[in-house]
């Protein structure tokens, strides 16, 4: 399933682009205006929901795992629409209890993501979501967390993939992206 050409164009035009953010020479693709529009946000959630139900059926997905920060913004809505659980993937120190950790290099520094180890039962099926697939480092670290607890990654889903950065090469499961740039 793909988003209709008119919906894709509408969503892509809603992205705000920021030059020299977060570092000089970088261009940041901000999808927050989509969330700010109830019409576009509903289209976004419905596009993901339709894709996942067509690909996996209504019973196979157990959890949506949303990557901080923007995967935390639309992941819960998608999980609710699918009738499955939601699990946040957060930066270190943001979650209580026993957490699994994965460290990766992002731009010019190292980051650590965490997930509560009891959040996803062993042998569960998980879809990982985030706004943009760029280098694939944060998504790959999230995949490591999911595998650490013995769960299965069905797919990585993104609103936008920056194709020139080849982030999909770092991921251990299929990817789906609504938009490409």
From TrEMBL:
<comment type="similarity">
    <text>Belongs to the purine/pyrimidine phosphoribosyltransferase family.</text>
</comment>
<dbReference type="Pfam" id="PF00156">
    <property type="entry name" value="Pribosyltran"/>
</dbReference>
<dbReference type="GO" id="GO:0044209">
    <property type="term" value="P:AMP salvage"/>
</dbReference>
<dbReference type="GO" id="GO:0006168">
    <property type="term" value="P:adenine salvage"/>
</dbReference>
<dbReference type="InterPro" id="IPR050054">
    <property type="entry name" value="UPRTase/APRTase"/>
</dbReference>
<feature type="domain" description="Phosphoribosyltransferase">
    <location>
        <begin position="46"/>
        <end position="176"/>
    </location>
</feature>
<dbReference type="GO" id="GO:0002055">
    <property type="term" value="F:adenine binding"/>
</dbReference>
<keyword id="KW-0660">Purine salvage</keyword>
<keyword id="KW-0328">Glycosyltransferase</keyword>
<comment type="function">
    <text>Catalyzes a salvage reaction resulting in the formation of AMP, that is energically less costly than de novo synthesis.</text>
</comment>
<dbReference type="GO" id="GO:0016208">
    <property type="term" value="F:AMP binding"/>
</dbReference>
<dbReference type="GO" id="GO:0006166">
    <property type="term" value="P:purine ribonucleoside salvage"/>
</dbReference>
<protein>
    <recommendedName>
        <fullName>adenine phosphoribosyltransferase</fullName>
        <ecNumber>2.4.2.7</ecNumber>
    </recommendedName>
</protein>
<keyword id="KW-0808">Transferase</keyword>
<comment type="pathway">
    <text>Purine metabolism; AMP biosynthesis via salvage pathway; AMP from adenine: step 1/1.</text>
</comment>
<dbReference type="GO" id="GO:0005737">
    <property type="term" value="C:cytoplasm"/>
</dbReference>
<dbReference type="GO" id="GO:0003999">
    <property type="term" value="F:adenine phosphoribosyltransferase activity"/>
</dbReference>
<dbReference type="InterPro" id="IPR000836">
    <property type="entry name" value="PRTase_dom"/>
</dbReference>
<dbReference type="InterPro" id="IPR029057">
    <property type="entry name" value="PRTase-like"/>
</dbReference>
<keyword id="KW-0963">Cytoplasm</keyword>
<comment type="subunit">
    <text>Homodimer.</text>
</comment>
């Amino acid at each position: 399933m793909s988003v209709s050409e008119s919906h894709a164009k509408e969503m892509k035009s809603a992205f705000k682009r920021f030059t020299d953010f977060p570092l000089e020479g970088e261009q940041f693709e901000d999808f927050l205006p989509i969330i700010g529009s109830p019409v576009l946000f509903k289209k976004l959630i419905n596009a993901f929901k339709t894709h996942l139900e067509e690909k996996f059926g209504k019973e196979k997905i157990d959890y949506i795992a949303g990557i901080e920060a923007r995967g935390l913004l639309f992941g819960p809505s998608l999980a609710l629409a699918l009738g499955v659980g939601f699990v946040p993937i957060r930066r270190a120190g943001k979650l209580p209890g026993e957490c699994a950790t994965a460290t990766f290099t992002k731009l010019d520094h190292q980051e650590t993501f965490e997930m509560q180890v009891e959040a996803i039962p062993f042998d569960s099926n998980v879809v990982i979501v985030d706004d943009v697939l760029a280098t694939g480092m944060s998504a790959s670290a999230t995949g490591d967390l999911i595998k650490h607890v013995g769960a299965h990654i069905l797919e990585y889903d993104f609103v936008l993939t920056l194709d020139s950065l080849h982030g999909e090469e770092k991921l251990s499961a299929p990817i789906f992206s609504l938009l490409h740039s």
